[in-house]
Amino acid sequence: xxxxxxxxxxxxxxxxxxxxxxxxFEKKGFQLVGAKLMHIPTELAEQHYGEHKERPFFGELVDFxxxxxxxxxxxxxxxxxxxxxxxxxxxxxxxxxxxxIRGDFGLTVGKNVIHGSDSPASAAREIGLxxxxxxxxxxKKLVNEWIY
Length: 148
Ligand code: RTP
Ligand code: MG
Known about the structure:
Alpha-Beta Plaits; four-stranded antiparallel sheet; kinase; alpha+beta; 148 residues; Nucleoside_diP_kinase_AS; metal-binding; binds ribavirin triphosphate; nucleotide-binding; 8 helices; binds magnesium ion
């Protein structure tokens, strides 16, 4: 089953949006397989955003993502990578549609609340950077055996 790496950025954590964001992916029907609140070390931030290292905003991006705790997650489900990106909305919140996470909560491109992997290759790379294999939990939903 497909997996993606999602992360509530420091602005989302400061604004108490962890629950709201987790809830959206839960209600959509995706399954949470790993999560942790953490400070990102500078070296990990530089690796994570390595594709942007020549961009003028790289320094700011690394400073911001290491400025406070983030909530890192792995989610599972069919087409979860592309669907999560749709649920997040455009990178710049001014272009993000209402109903998307960035459209509803984001204010500026630098502080846009959430990160999500943009391809299967990015997802595999980012999950590997942030999680050890034994931090990911596989489980079946048993609820249909428990209720009528
Ligand atoms: P992310 O990687 O954080 O999920 O965001 P994304 O794929 O939608 O956008 P990406 O192009 O990968 O850019 C990564 C982050 O860099 C910041 N950014 N700042 N000042 C600027 O022009 C600018 N452009 C991008 C954003 O915070 C973006 O999320
Ligand atoms: Mg990106």
